[in-house]
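Dear colleagues,

For the upcoming journal club I promised to circulate an example of a predicted protein-ligand complex. I picked one with flavin-adenine dinucleotide because it came up in last month's discussion. The inputs are reproduced below in full, followed by the predicted structure.
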Amino acid sequence: MFDYLIVGAGFAGSVLAERVASEQNARVLVVDSRNHIAGNAFDFYDDAGILVHKYGPHIFHTNSEKVFQYLSRFTAWRPYEHRVKASVDGQLVPMPINADTINKLYGLRLTCHEVDAYLTSIAETRDSITTSEDVVVSRVGRELYEKFFRNYTRKQWGLDPSELDAAVTARVPVRTSRDDRYFTDKFQAMPLHGYTRMFDRMLAHPKISVMLNTHYKDVKNEVRFRELIFTGPVDEYFDYCYGKLPYRSLRFDHQTHDQDRYQTAPVVNYPNEHAYTRITEFKDLTGQKHRKTSIVFEYPCADGAPYYPIPQPQNAALYQRYKALADTLPHVHFVGRLATYKYYNMDQVVAQALRTFEKIKETSPAKAER
Ligand code: FAD
Ligand code: UDP
C-alpha cells in the first residue's frame, strides 16, 4: 500500500515525490513510461562522452528565490547566461533583437536611444494585443516581424503567429540596449553535474520507489494507493472523452562532430531557412571541455511525443472542460506542463509543484494517519 502513486518522474512528479516523502514520511511509488527519470530535462553522456540533453536544450532561469533555493538542495550550480544568434539575411545577429541586431542587419551605427526611436517609428499601431503577430508588429513593425518571427513560428507551431496567443512570441523580448542575453532572470545557472544527477538526488529518499518503463495503465489496477499525482497529459487521463488536446512535437537529430566547435553561439536560430528551427551546441551550456562537440537540430512536427501545449483560445476552452472534470476528483492531483496544459518553463513547474504540496498538506488523509 502506497500513500502516493505519482505518474511521471519529470520536475512535477519528482518535486512532489521528494516533498511528500521528506515532509510527510509518505510511502511513494513513482512510475514513468520512459526508461529514465527527469522527464524532458533528462541529460546523459552520449557515445563520445559529451553531456547532452535528449529532448533539446534546457536552460535553467528563474526569478523565484524559493524555487532556486529548493533545487539548490539537490545540486550545485554553474553560472550560465544563455545567448542566441539568429541567421537572417546571411548574417548571424543577436536574438532577442537588440541595438546590435539592428545595426548589424542594416549596416548602421545607431545609439541605443536612436534604435529606440527607430523601432517606435516602424512599429504598427494595434488597438489590442491578442495574437502573437500583434505582439511583434506593434513593437518592431512588419519587416523585422517577417525576418525574425513569422517563419520561425510557422515552422515551430505549424500555425501563423496571427493564430497563436500573444503569450507565445511575448516570451522573447525586444531590447534597445546592447544586452544580448536570452533571459534577464535573477537566477541563471545550470546544474553543475547535469539535470539527471539532480533528479537522482531528489528521488533518493528511502521512502520513494521508482519504476521505469511503466505506464500508468499498467499499474493503476495493480497497485494500492491513497492519493494519485498525475503529471501526464490530462486528456489521456480522461480517455480523451472530450477529444484530444493538441500538442506540438519535435524530432531531435543529435550529432557529434570531430572538431572543437561547431558554431559561434550556444544556440543558432534559423527562422527562414531549413526545416529545423535551431541548432544547440551542448558544450557551451555545460562548460564541458572535450575535443569533439555534440549538437542537436530540432525539427518541429505534428505527430510524436507531446512536447508543447498549443496556446490558442479553443484549446484553452477544451482544457477548461478537462479541468472541470479534474476538479471533481479530490484525491487526484494534476500537476505540470502536460497535466495542466500550460506552456511552462521548468521553474514554473517546480513552483506549481511546491504550491500543490502546500495544498496537499492541508487535505491529505495520509498526513492525518501519521
Ligand atoms: P515532463 O518533463 O514532460 O515529465 C512528465 C513525465 O511523465 C514524462 O517523463 C513522461 O514520460 C511521463 N508520463 C506521461 N504520461 C505518463 C503515463 N501515462 N504513464 C507513465 N508516465 C507518464 N524549460 C525551461 O525552463 N528552460 C528551457 O530551456 C526549456 N527548454 C525546453 C526545450 C524543449 C524542446 C522542450 C520540449 C521543453 C523545454 N522546457 C524548458 C520546458 C520543460 O521541459 C518543462 O517545463 C518541464 O520539463 C516540465 O516538467 P513536467 O514534469 O511537467 O513534464
Ligand atoms: N520565436 C521566433 N523566432 C525566434 C525565436 C522565437 O519567432 O528566433 C517565437 C516562436 O514562436 C517561439 C516563441 O517565440 O515558439 C518562443 O520562443 P522560445 O525561444 O521561448 O521557445 P522554446 O525555447 O520554448 O521552444
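Two points we might discuss: The chain has 13 helices and 17 strands. Residues 2-80+187-246+310-368 form a domain with the Rossmann fold fold (CATH 3.40.50.720).

See you all on Thursday,
B. R.
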